[in-house]
Structures are given as structure tokens and as C-alpha cells.
Amino acid sequence: MGYKNFMGKFHRKTLLNDLSAGLTLAFVSIPISMAYAQLAGVEPIYGIYTAMLTVIIGSLASSSSLMIVTISDEVALVVASSLGTLGTDITSGLVTLTLMVGLLQLITGQLKMGSLVRFISAEVMSGFIAAVGFSLIISQLAKFTGYKSMIALPYISNSVIQALDILIHPEMWDLPTFLVGIGTITFLMLFKWSKLKRYGNLLAILVISVFVTLFGLNSVKLTGSIAPITGGLPQPVLPNIMLIPDLILPALAILILTSIQTVGVGSAYPNPDGKVTDRSKNFSAQ
């Protein structure tokens, strides 16, 4: 990327907003990336490594200033369902799958295949975005209420049936955890309506975190309770080419998921300067 294109990513007028958004995303991404790594069935620390590197590369390479290249629960679920094909060395298998998906995304972008998404109707895109939002809500109910349902029924999604079980059993909720969740939402909305709206997300996190510490709400799970965070970076791991045939279908599934998400962000949230988003470039950025 040339110097001119690189500097074009930064604007003095939006610098404070960009810093605020970056700090907020950094704080929020720590527990989320660890949780998604656990959802994928790998060590939580790898979620932080992934989120840390992908955001930097994606922000410099994408054509959308509002697209974040990071972990998603849909991709984590595909990885979790593919654990059996990753081999005995999960880390090596995960590296192999990641590189395969990256190469497919790069090829898709370089061949200008982003235009193919024009055949996807707007209704399908809206439905997909709504479904993602719904899945995120029900996936957070256990953490929001402090009650984790263990119900599992055949032929019914566990996440849906467990969400219903949580909702119909409020007596099982952990009150401090629930109040912290409600308080976070309340403070977030109040800050968004105030002159501090630029830092609303970050301030809401800080205020509630201080509140939990001061009042000793021990039943409220902290980020550190998810898994230990070790210092330093991981040792490099080589991919296992023997796993490539088994990982082709999972790689294609992730390619389709991430492509739809990319188009959804670009279509729903255009660049603030009105510049049209280059879908193919966004595929390459991923």
C-alpha cells in the first residue's frame, strides 16, 4: 500500500472519534474474543491474538472505514463443528484452516468476484443481518442473567431452547449479574444522549466495572474468570497440508459466511464521505 493510500485512512476531523471507537473496541474485544475462541473449542488466548492482528491488517486494507475484521460467532461455530477434521494437533489444524480461508478470500477479491453478491436480494441480506443479531442476543442471555441452561432436545437448536428456558425461569437468575447488565445498557444509553456520547461505550464499561469492584459483587463473572491471559506472543506453528482435503468444505463455509457479512456491513453502513465501498477489496482485506 502506497504512502498516499495509507495516509488517506486518517482524517484530523475524525481523529477523536476514531480514538474513542478504537479504545472501546479494544476493551470490548478482550472478553468477546476469548469467549468466541472457547466457542470454537480452542484456547481462549488465541482469540486475543486473532482479534489483535486482524483488526490492524483489516483497517489498512479494506475500503470500508466502518468494517471491522475480527472474530464472529458464526465462524467460531463452523470451526467448532470442524474440530474432528482438524487432526490431533488442534493448533496446527486451526492454522491450516485459517490460511485456507485467507487464500480463498484473497483469490475472491483479486478476481473481482465481489460483484457476484449483486445476485443476493436485499431481503436476504436484511434477513441474514437480523438472524445474526438474534443469534447474538440469545447467545448472551446466559451471561446477561447469570443462569446457564443445560437443556438439550433432539431436532431443536440448543441455543434457542436454552434461551427459552432462561426466559421462563427468572427465579434462577443471578440478581447482581442481571442488574449489572441492565445498568450497563442504561449507562450506555445515557452517555449516548449526553455530550460525552463520543466516549459513551468506553465510559459505560468503566463505570460499571468500578461499581462491581466497589460493591464486591463476587457473583458477577470477570474477564479474568474466563481463562488466564499469558504474557508474550505464541510460537509460530506450521500448517498441516495433509488436512487440506478434509478442511475444504469448512473453509468454503467460512468464506461464504464472511463474504455475506462483508457485503452486509458495506451495504448497511456506507462510508461517511459517501465513497462507494469496494466489495472485492474488502474480500481481499479479510
Detail the topology: elements first, then pairings.
Layout: H1 3-7, H2 15-40, H3 45-61, H4 73-81, H5 90-110, H6 122-145, H7 158-167, H8 175-192, H9 200-214, H10 244-268, H11 279-285
Helix pairs in contact: 2-3, 2-4, 3-11, 4-10, 5-10, 5-11, 6-7, 6-10, 8-9
Verbal overview:
It is a single chain. The radius of gyration is 20 Å and the shape is globular. The longest helix is centred in the N-terminal third of the chain and has 26 residues, at 15-40. The protein is built from 11 helices and no strands. It starts with a helix and ends with a helix. It has helices spanning 3-7, 15-40, 45-61, 73-81, 90-110, 122-145, 158-167, 175-192, 200-214, 244-268, 279-285. The chain has one domain (3-133, 169-174, 220-285). It has 286 residues and is mainly alpha-helical. Helices cover 62% and strands 0% of the residues.
Instruction: Please trace the helix and strand order, writing H or E for each element.
Output: HHHHHHHHHHH
Instruction: Give the amount of beta strand, in percent.
Output: under 5%
Q: Averaged pLDDT, please?
A: 79
pLDDT < 50 runs, ≥5 residues = 1-7
Tell me briefly what this model is.
With 286 residues, this protein is mainly alpha-helical. The protein has helices at residues 3-7, 15-40, 45-61, 73-81, 90-110, 122-145, 158-167, 175-192, 200-214, 244-268, 279-285. The two termini are 15 Å apart.
